[in-house]
Amino acid sequence: MTKCTDSVVLNLWHPVGAIAEAIPGAVQETVLLEERLSFAVGGDGEPIVWRSRPDLRRADQVPAADRLPAKSAYGYVWTSLGSPPAELFPIPEYAEPDRRRLNAATFGVNVSAPRAIENFLDMGHFPYVHTDILGAEPHTEVKEYDVEISVDRDEILATRCRFFQPMASTASDGGADVDYVYRVPHPYCSVLYKSSPVDESRRDVIAIFLQPVDQEHVRAHMLLCVLDENSEDKVIKRFQQTIFGQDKPILENQVPKRLPLDPRAETPIRADKSAIAYRRWLSQKGVTYGVIPAAA
Amino acid sequence: MITLYDYELSGNCYKLRLLMSFLGIDHNTVPVDFYPGREHKSEWFLKLNPLGQLPVIDDDGLILRDAQAILVYLASKYDPPGTWYPRNNPALLGEISQWLAFADGITGTASAARLHDALFYDFDIDAARAGAHRLFRILDEHLWFGEQEGRQWICSAPQPTIADIACFPYIMLSEEGGISRQDYPAIRRWCDRVKRIKGFIVMSGVFPAGPARAAA
Ligand SMILES: N[C@@H](CCC(=O)N[C@@H](CS)C(=O)NCC(=O)O)C(=O)O
Ligand SMILES: [Fe+2]
Predict the structure, then answer these.
(1) CA of B121 to the centre of ligand 1 (A)
(2) Whose CA is nearest to atom 20 of ligand 1?
(3) What is the domain extent for residue A223?
(4) Are residues A157 and A219 part of one domain?
(5) List of residues 6+ apart from B211 with CB closer than 8 A
(6) Hey, which of B14, B97, B107, B204 would you mutate to test ligand 1's pocket, going by the most ligand atoms within 8 Å of its Cβ?
(7) Is residue A220 located within the same domain as residue A99?
(8) A268 lies in a domain?
(9) Contact B180, B194 (CB under 8 A)
(10) Does ipTM come in above 0.85?
(11) Which one of B54, B122, B162 would you pick to mutate in the ligand 1 pocket, going by the greatest count of ligand atoms within 8 A of its CB?
């Protein structure tokens, strides 16, 4: 496979690792868009990222000119191989002081980033894949919901999604009808909002940030930003890891691994409105990495 | 009461959850943040198991480590008819021990490949996959010959034993380490039989048997 030549994707911010898991000063190696990168987080929390080179073993040895753009946001180190925008997409809830903010885990998955986003948006699989947690038979119907491509924010927004969930989160004490809102503010990142079992006026926030290792492999970083005063961190993480562990084989069995953007390539099943909008949005942006572009 | 020190995505922990479900044994769970927290290497956990490995159980003060050892203990103590671990059949016990050791070999290969791909462990991935294929080939042939003789399970017993439980999880999860089961039809049929044992439960990454998923 050739390295990435997709300028849209090269110019994005991409996550490479969780700040909470970084030992200050220690250099970590990773791969982004088929390039080997090194990064370190300083004692001040500021990340430094560079293209791996045998002569650069510590962050302080890296000349300013060799440093890649770097940013700390939502608990992760972000970087770019091109010229990224000044700001990353907003998640205002992240700043709310009473929320638990956790990196649930970073998992390697043998799938393209767009396939993983599409699965994240799909409620139809809940009863079958996350049985007795995020769904249960006979409550299998995906009810009508709204999808828009917000032009001013340049993101996809799916609203009025509802689903019956036996165990919506670690703070649940039984089944409930749960409201969802999904945002796709970045070709490889999505943020979902779901009714909080502890405060009916607010929503839990769960985001998936996909680091494209190559066109068919990602590192999936999961951010939890939830309302739960009682559960230990590891219990909240375990819940999300259980869910993701159920999705993983489904993702890895997708054929083809890259997401076909031609509207005729795969017959949309279920109420795949958000998937159709997502594919169209990727086409409009001219994304070619991790997808099979529609024939011109 | 039994306490299981557990990590949801661990196949070795799942072995014990499976046996306890088959036997209907109640237990408490203490979640261990294996990943990303590496809590199995924390000071408190190393006091329970100096090897720094999951699973561990505490049964009224008896602390045991190693999934296979714990299967032997639980089946000996909590399965009065002794079907999962037939205590008075020396030949069968020998066979079971042989396959329990084999199961640890599956952990050392197929599970290592999965840890490499999914959790970024620094292992020799080619060696792990090749090692797993070698073991899968041996087990597939063993199961295939067994089927010719009317044997359904790994050991020469008319019912499943703890050897089946010990081998099952990391075979089922092998694809997460890039190890296909395509070439092992007898293994696929055996996996389906395990899934149909009364009391079978799943873990993340393992799906129940169903008409649509029945092994070919
Ligand atoms: N022989 C042991 C192996 C257990 C094992 O490999 N456990 C893994 C988790 S599933 C572990 O804790 N690995 C950490 C390590 O080996 O350092 C058993 O069967 O229980
Ligand atoms: Fe899912």
Answers:
(1) 13
(2) B66
(3) 92-292
(4) yes
(5) none
(6) B107
(7) yes
(8) yes
(9) no
(10) yes
(11) B54
